Amino acid sequence: MAKIGDFVNSGTPLGIAIGIGAAVAAAAFIPILPALAKAARPTVRAVIKSGIVLTGRAQELIAETNEQLEDIFAEARDELIRESEAEQAESAEYRGPSVHREDV
Predict the structure, then answer these.
(1) 37 domain residue, yes or no
(2) DSSP H or E segment with residue 69
(3) DSSP code of 98?
(4) Total domain count, the chain
């Protein structure tokens, strides 16, 4: 058989008290929600406007960064092509004319 001590130690009375307190607080808070929403409207609108401006600036920054990276990529590709052409020219110089034994 359950004892009263077990009921108290289980935390049930605390849970019941928290539930009753939350219900009372909600009953007192719900009527002022429309007034709070109306008062918060200008602040929320300002936050949204700031977010829109920040998004636009971020898009500009990303576009500039992308353009710079494309320029760097093109420069690196051109350098690789020039280096490859220089290496091919050097290796052609070192080979020299081919001499076969039959020609000698």
Answers:
(1) yes
(2) helix 33-95
(3) -
(4) 1
What pLDDT, in 10s, does the model give residues 21-77? 888 888 888 888 888 888 889 999 999 999 999 999 999 999 999 999 999 999 999
| Cα–Cα distance for residue pair 75/23, rounded to 1 Å | 68
Whole-structure pTM value: 0.46
CA contacts within 13 A on the Cβ side of 49? 6
- Rounded distance, CA 71 to CA 65, Å? 10
In which domain, by residue range, is 37 found?
12-93
Asked if residue 53 belongs to a domain, the reply is yes
At position 22, the amino acid (one-letter code) is A
